[in-house]
């Protein structure tokens, strides 16, 4: 299967939030242009795209029909919808761009995206680390038939690209396992603190934990600081991680509970991330 790209491919980013802007900026040295779809996006998204020096095009359809590579970096619950929007734009068009789904989704979700866009054209991506403006902190794990082609685009960039192999879903499986320890386990502290407060034993719990060298308030404040305004997004990621666990017969309650905790932190009592 031919996964070759033009010497200076056009790369489209859907949509340049903090991570998407960093990815777009990292790809600029190898791209003929890095474009994004401006229609319906917020002022903050527009500002990030401007600061990253990305080129705006009218909408997703225009981006899909121009790009050689599309990077999807969006909230987990929207990943399938974004892929379907791209597929609709390409339905009557000869172009078949490579599609990097860099979202925190389950293997089943990214495999479903492969069914929508063609499994040979979809690359499963998992970003572990912060938006990368300098090297050394962030790894982009990749899997899928065209993973090596996409990895080459990031050579020398602040994102360290690592290829897991040709299996679509491997990168998402790795991210799900990593996310359980990085997001589900910390959420347990918030649940513990909430329960202790509800029972009126929070001060006693603080004293008892202090004997073990654990400062409850500091731990809970650390969880809140890391989640911050992203708590709603972390809830969606925990839903996807839970699906990944359940799919291989591993108990998924850790992630389900973490999703509920992050929804509470985000002030969403509806269960929707």
Automatic annotation (TrEMBL):
<dbReference type="Pfam" id="PF09130">
    <property type="entry name" value="DUF1932"/>
</dbReference>
<dbReference type="InterPro" id="IPR036291">
    <property type="entry name" value="NAD(P)-bd_dom_sf"/>
</dbReference>
<dbReference type="InterPro" id="IPR013328">
    <property type="entry name" value="6PGD_dom2"/>
</dbReference>
<feature type="domain" description="Phosphogluconate dehydrogenase NAD-binding putative C-terminal">
    <location>
        <begin position="196"/>
        <end position="264"/>
    </location>
</feature>
<dbReference type="InterPro" id="IPR015814">
    <property type="entry name" value="Pgluconate_DH_NAD-bd_C"/>
</dbReference>
<protein>
    <submittedName>
        <fullName>DUF1932 domain-containing protein</fullName>
    </submittedName>
</protein>
<dbReference type="InterPro" id="IPR008927">
    <property type="entry name" value="6-PGluconate_DH-like_C_sf"/>
</dbReference>
